[in-house]
């Protein structure tokens, strides 16, 4: 049984990368392997923005990532630096900087690159989308 980490660097607006990532992860799980974590980095952090709305006519990754977390205990790690640079903030950052509303919440977890690299030691394969 293989253990995977998945690195999401493409934005939700960039073609069908999110859908392909989700289908890949579903295949890994149905094959009996595990996905330990998804790490959202660069423009991939836009997947975690709670203020984005589902338009109904395309794949909406945020709901899919949340289902993966709930159903298969996949950690959803968000690069804190990449997120803050793109205006995606937790309750803590919102309070510290006087922002009215946070747009990052559970099950997404802020993490640094160091934490992600530590997680990589527990997996067999890394796949990037």
Automatic annotation (TrEMBL):
GO terms for cellular component: sulfurtransferase complex. It is found in: Cytoplasm. The gene is tusD. It holds the Pfam family DsrE. Belongs to the DsrE/TusD family. Keywords: Cytoplasm, Transferase. GO terms for molecular function: sulfur carrier activity; sulfurtransferase activity. Transmembrane segments: none annotated. The lineage of its organism: Bacteria, Pseudomonadati, Pseudomonadota, Gammaproteobacteria, Alteromonadales. InterPro entries: DsrEFH-like (IPR027396), Sulphur_relay_DsrE/F-like (IPR003787), Sulphur_relay_TusD/DsrE (IPR017463). Its main location: cytoplasm. This is Sulfurtransferase complex subunit TusD. One of its GO terms (biological process) is tRNA wobble position uridine thiolation.
């Amino acid at each position: 049984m293989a253990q995977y980490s998945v690195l999401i660097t493409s934005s939700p607006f960039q073609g069908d990368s999110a859908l392909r990532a989700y289908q890949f992860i579903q295949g890994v799980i149905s094959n009996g392997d595990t996905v330990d974590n998804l790490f959202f980095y660069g423009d991939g952090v836009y997947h975690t923005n709670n203020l984005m709305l589902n338009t109904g006519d395309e794949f909406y990754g945020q709901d899919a990532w949340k289902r993966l977390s709930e159903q298969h205990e996949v950690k959803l790690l968000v690069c804190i630096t990449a997120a803050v640079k793109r205006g995606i903030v937790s309750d803590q950052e919102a309070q510290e900087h006087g922002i009215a509303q946070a747009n990052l919440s559970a099950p997404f977890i802020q993490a640094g690159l160091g934490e992600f690299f530590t997680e990589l030691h527990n997996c067999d394969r890394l796949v990037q989308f």
